[in-house]
Amino acid sequence: MVLTAPLATLPLSAAEPFIIVQSTTSTQNSGLYDAILPLFTATSGIDVRVVAVGTGQAIKNARNCDGDVLLVHARASEQAFVADGAGVSRSDVMYNDFVLVGPADDPARLSDTTNVAEAFAALAQGETPFASRGDDSGTHKKEMSLWQNAHVDPTDASGAWYRETGSGMGATLNIAIGMNAYAMTDRATWIAFGNKSGHKIVFEGDEALFNQYGVIAVNPERCPAVKATEAKAFIDWLLSDAGQGAIGAYQRDGQQLFFPNAQK
Amino acid sequence: MLELVKAARPETDPLLTLDHVTLIRGGAAVLDALSLDITAGVITAIMGANGAGKSLAMRVMAGLIAPEAGQVRYAPDMRAPRDVSIVFQRPVLLRRSVRGNLRHALKVYGVPRNQRTRRLAELLELGRLGLIADTPARALSGGEQQRVAMVRALAAKPKLLLLDEPTASLDPQATQAIEQLMRKAADDGATVVIVTHDRGQAKRLAQDIRFMHRGKLVEKAPAKRFFDHPTSAAASAYLSGELFL
Amino acid sequence: MLEIGTAFSAAFGLIIGLDADLIEIIALSLQVTLTAVLVACLIGFPLGALLAVGRFPMRNALVVLVNALMGLPPVVVGLGVYLMLSRAGPLGVLNLLYTPTAMVIAQTILVTPIIAALTRQVIEDMNIEYDELLRSMGTGRLSQMQTLLWDARYALVTAALAGLGRALAEVGAVMIVGGNINHVTRVMTTAIALETSKGELALALGLGIILMTLSIVLNATLMGFRRTAERMAYA
Question: For labeling, which of A31, B62, B151, C56 is most exposed (least CB within 10 Å)?
Answer without folding.
Answer: C56
